[in-house]
Amino acid sequence: MNLILLALHDIPAEQIQHLAKLSGASHSEQTDAHSWRLCGATPHDDIAAYCLAHQIDYGFMPEGKTLAGFGLVVMDMDSTLISIECIDEIADMQGLKPEVAAITESAMRGEIDFAESLRRRVALLEGLDEVALQRVYDERLKLNPGAEFMLAALKKYNIKTLLVSGGFLFFTERLKPRLGLDYTHANTLEIVGGKLTGRVLGEILDAQGKAEWLLKIRDQLGLKPEQVIAMGDGANDLKMMAQAGISIAYHAKPVVRAQASYAFNFVGLDGLVRLFKT
Q: Has residue 273 been placed in a domain?
């Protein structure tokens, strides 16, 4: 196994040496300005705490594992591909961001059923002019760091992308052509007379729905589970992530970090590419 070290800063030589000693690595290789590969490494109980203390993301990767071996990357949208929770920002247009954000946080921690939490949050948006959605997209929606680097690398290796969100179709359908995503799916806000009704149309896309979409696209592409990577940050991403060969918790809640193959607590989305030999 190789121990991959990822950071936003230069990793000092003494930290590399300490981690090499802990893992029993045979030798180390610097792979880019802020990344290292410690070859012939084995897990050690002290690695996680040491890396966390020094703001280093890490993961053990089998020798020879490359990004080219994958065929599909499935991503959550809010707080994963993009830096905001869209519904919280929409609520801000109503002066209700604290109330809605509190429900969002509770749902992402897994304390409230997602579908129920979404209905409660959307109900608070009743009467809001639909122009608020475009304002959120234009003024507040930003990609998370490293997103464009990651997506360019996936295209290079002809890896398909699925953006599957418990958020809203309004945003996913705009990101799809902008970013060249292959597949997207999300929930639809009901709008009547130019105003939000406070309801979601159709069946709510929840944790199970996300997992089902991963399986649907995976099967369409004729891929095996080990050829799929899934990435998310909240409890409603866990079922989806469990269906993938590799799961990545991106700046995620503790319940998600605990169950993911890898956790990015510090680096951007480009960390997905930097995990692998390319």
A: no
